[in-house]
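Q: Here's a chain of 292 amino acids. Please give me its 3D structure as tokens.
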Amino acid sequence: MSESIVEWAPAKLNVFLRVVGRRDDGDHDIETVIVPLDLHDVVTITTATVHEVTVEGPRAADLHAAGGESIAGRALAAFAEVLGVPVPPVHVSIDKRIPVAAGMGGGSADAAAVLRGLARHLGVAASALPEVAAAVGADVPALLHGGVVYADGRGDRIAPVHAQPTTWVVAPARFGVRSVDAYAWWDADGTTGPDPGALIAALEVGHHDLLGSALFDDLQRPVAARHPWVSETIDAFGEAGAAGAVMTGSGPTVVALARHLVHADVIARAVPGSFVVTGPPRTMGPGQSGVV
């Protein structure tokens, strides 16, 4: 590798998350639509003498404080193991910008970016990557794809959704929620939400009011029962005039749907600590789009 390979790793939100039930292997069957966002980490891959992953940037300390680590190292190992392709030592540097333990898919996005970068580095066809992504983690196939997708099963079976662009206001919490905890709380006290057909149709045609009224996340109620901030923030977005608001993924981040950028700015000013994003992004960054 004569030059560094740089990949953007877009965050995501779930316009809905339907938990169908717990599987025998301890994971959960879900249905969801995932929208990648223009908020992103930056993953840089360079040659090295040993495999190494380092995390820097404005959210690096949050990752350390959460007691977690990037799953980029897992992506390196899975690339070699699943594809049978030796990976020469590389240094993976992650500029961490996506909130940590927030339900926005930062770790999975980083892993997907590592897979794309390694494929470029080693001349591996992009069509080989979905199998590797599924071995790394449940959200990785969706974030490898690069566009809006419907996902079911463990989240590893995906299909493209031809969605209209959307604008959102994001309120990250000052605390994190581990996915394993959110799903355990659902096991103890959760229900399965409605058929998402009308919601998906609203997303496809860009009907903001219908989409906003239909947003749901089956993990929201169990998480909010333990962290009232979630419900309080959803209420604050409603009072600010959002088309709808919901917790995303395993939380605790809350996202609010805006009708356009000016509307989003008004909402963000009314809810301190929030910021505006759009999705899907027009490009995945220097490496271009993901895998179809």
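Q: Can you summarize the key feature?
A: The CA atoms of residues 37 and 279 lie 4 Å apart.
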